[in-house]
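User: Structure with Fe4 H S5, tokens only please.
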Amino acid sequence: MPRKCRKCQRPAVINMRQHKLALCADHFQEWVVNQTERFIKKYRMFTHDDRVLVAVSGGKDSLALWDVLLQLGYQVDGLYLGLGIDGGFGYSDESRAMCQAFAEKHPETTLHVLDIPTTYGESIPEMAARTRRGKGKPCSVCGLVKRHEMNRIAHDLGYHVLATGHNLDDEVAVLFQNTLNWQVGYLARQAPVLPESPGFARKVKPFCRFYERETATYAIVRGIDYVYDECPFAEGATTIYYKELLNRLEADKPGAKLHFYLAFLKARETLFAHWQEEHVELHPCENCGQPTSAPGLCTFCRLLPEEVRPRVRHAQPIMVKSML
Ligand code: Q46
Ligand code: ZN
Ligand code: ZN
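Assistant:
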């Protein structure tokens, strides 16, 4: 028997066993928007006075997040970083096209695009191969570049808050990994909000309590076009293995992931109430000015060939504004 929406009795598009809640397309959209607003307020992520920059990858989570924040009337724009990853199907080109298509449908928002190969002369896989960082996988170089550039651009363009589309499945997989290894420093910092500090924007994850199937259903019912394929380098990542394990647990015990995450956030308040970050002296990078603990240059600037380094100071993203 297909389920019916709890609110209007029309056919449901989703049944959320952990909430014992089935909803039709209209009521589900409304529920996602209201819940997001609730999480933003509960975790004090930002207010209507803050300028928010959403890091968009062209995938369902980040585009759905951008869409929800626009519906809620926040001052929000998107940032897309072109990584130059092809994977045999033009992954980066397709991702960028999805972000641009979204921006073109929403005249009230702006998409900022920075293409890494055009700006710094090399794609992420090329940088990784040249520097031999990350044992054949470009992910560690990619993470470093994304963190640096997102923070730099947010700062240069006057955004106070950087939002990412991490969902519950992402958060729980990382939490599981950090717990298995008892990485206490990472656990202390794993939260829906990472407060700003001098030189670093506040980082928020408004979708951290939504299951992946919920964000996917939201994107589909809202008619958002997104890239279905993951980055080709994501394959074989440890977090994907943990996601599979956790899916088995969830199938046997609906709500187990959400419980694990929420119980952690609660325990975290006591466990880390007196947590002191190891004090590291930060100083401005000699090239780009961002705070760094490394002597002289930050890790990002050190990654770049010497002749390319001055570009960091002037690299501005291009703006894609709707022509509607
Ligand atoms: S880190 Fe690695 Fe991701 Fe970069 S290279 Fe692809 S899988 S995109 S989140
Ligand atoms: Zn309904
Ligand atoms: Zn630097």
